[in-house]
Amino acid sequence: MGLFVNPDCSAFKAAVASEIYIDKTSLIKHTNQMLGTLQAFVCNSRPRRFGKSVTADMLTAYYSKGADASELFQGLAISQIPGFTKHLNKYDVLHFDIQWCFKECGKAEATVPYITKIVLNELRQLYGKIVPDDVQKISGALSAINAATGNKFVIVIDEWDVFIRDESHNTKVQEQYIDFLRNLFKGSEPAKYVALAYLTGILPIKKVKTQSALNNFDEYTMLDASFFAPYTGFTENEVKTLCSRYHADFTAVKRWYDGYLLDDYHIYNPKAVVNAMLRGRLQSYWSQTGTYQTIKTLIDMNFAGLRTAIIDMLAGNSVAVNTNFFQNDMISFASKDDILTALIHLGYLSYDINEHTASIPNEEIRQEFAGAISSNNWSELHAFEIESTQLLNAVLDGETAVVANSIAKLHDEYASSIRYNDENSLSSVLTIAFLSTMQYYFKPIREFPTGRGFADFVYLPKPRYKENYPALIVELKWNQSAKTALDQIKERNYTQTLEQYTGNMLLVGINYDKKSKKHTCCIEQIKK
């Protein structure tokens, strides 16, 4: 049992002993199927606070010869799978956290030599003269051991991308690290001594410099997690169970921490959900483990359409994004799409793989964006906020003509002439028009199931504003009338479902006439 070679299971044991532990050991069933195959090289990236290290510790505890984990895994999901003990603590495991090693060394350029020295010493303690004295690289030692004994290794690297993210301008360190990875994983020889290589970090594999080093890895990311999706964060059923256990309002928890859709799974931020359960308070926990300086730097970049896209998403819309050209680093940005893709990997945006769109996932991240933008004095946002505040006040005061004129003005300014006569365009304009609701209301809910149908938009007031701000039920019509929209809200009894969430309600019907290009509005108040 060593520091990096054949660690024990103490790290994973601490996770299992925690008050809240969600069993993700079924993941091991998939890695067991990968052992010794062409799929044995895995890079599974996800944002901070999404359980990367716990997963790395779990795999180490299961495979490492230095751990006696049979009792630890008893009762967990993997123990119910046939053949559970076949690979249990049967492999020499190399496990190191690049970020920890970086901090321990104090210098980036000393990290690879530091890891190499410790691993070689520990391998020599295990295998003696099998590792020749003149071997100076980990890859050479593993190859020699495999040739002499036939043993294969499981290699687990946590925070693999630290130098790609935090030393993005240090080309010397990156080249040194890339060479280290190339020697360890690239070519036919590593295929002989690697039973499983599992890399985890925030960013996917760098497309240019490390492509030749790691192009044999299968990647699972926030863009496409595949079968890793339910292991990337907490699933909806897992969160429902926690809400029942801690007597928390699941609907409110969902509003705060849901929003990441991976392979048809609704994925929740694990760290935030745990904090919310243990502290009994729904709020943003994001900034407690990282600053939003990164997001400020990214969204301040002057790429065409970037700020408009951010404002659009703040208002509750999704925006199209092309993720194909992002270079998987924090320096090679060439367009707004690169910025949006980086924000997806960092967890600040969610991604719809079917629609190829990005959006702000939940209230927690919405607050982070609002905080990052507030000190930047965006003129675009300031202009929208002024008009939006005037519109919201007009809605609350029942001034239908002012509301209709405000939406018409924004429709003219915001929607392109190509998409002006488009119902989706009007929906986007409406969310932008109500941008100022962000202070008082949660993110608008589209197609909210109410009564015998679906309301186009529902704005629910935040708890501290519930007494002074009514819920807004907004129905859009196209070439009909605003009164028709209002009648539909009442006929289908949309307000019935909302009674459990709010007090007073305002019913808002909005119509756009394609021929006259006239907008009309009807507003009616429903008191509880």
Summarize the structure.
The chain has about 525 residues and is an alpha/beta fold. It has helices at about 10-15, 25-35, 50-65, 70-75, 100-105, 110-125, 140-150, 160-165, 170-185, 190-195, 210-215, 235-245, 250-255, 270-280, 295-300, 305-315, 335-345, 365-375, 380-395, 400-415, 425-435, 480-490, 495-500; strands at about 40-45, 90-95, 155-160, 195-200, 220, 235, 260, 265-270, 320, 350, 355-360, 445-450, 455-460, 470-480, 505-515, 520-525.
Description:
It is a single chain. With 528 residues, the protein is α/β, with parallel strands linked by helices. The protein is built from 23 helices and 16 strands. It has helices at residues 10-16, 27-34, 52-63, 70-73, 98-105, 111-127, 138-149, 162-166, 171-185, 188-193, 211-214, 236-246, 250-257, 270-279, 293-299, 306-314, 336-345, 363-374, 379-397, 400-414, 423-433, 482-491, 494-498; strands at 41-45, 92-97, 153-158, 194-201, 218-220, 234-235, 260-262, 265-268, 319-320, 350-352, 357-359, 445-450, 453-459, 471-478, 505-513, 518-526. The strands form four sheets. The chain has a five-stranded parallel beta sheet. The protein has a five-stranded mixed beta sheet with strand order 12-13-14-15-16, sandwiched between helices. It has a three-stranded antiparallel beta sheet with strand order 6-8-7. A hairpin with a 4-residue loop joins strand 10 and strand 11 (357-359). The protein starts with 9 loop residues before the first helix and ends with a strand. 44% of the residues are buried. The model has no long low-confidence stretch (mean pLDDT 89).
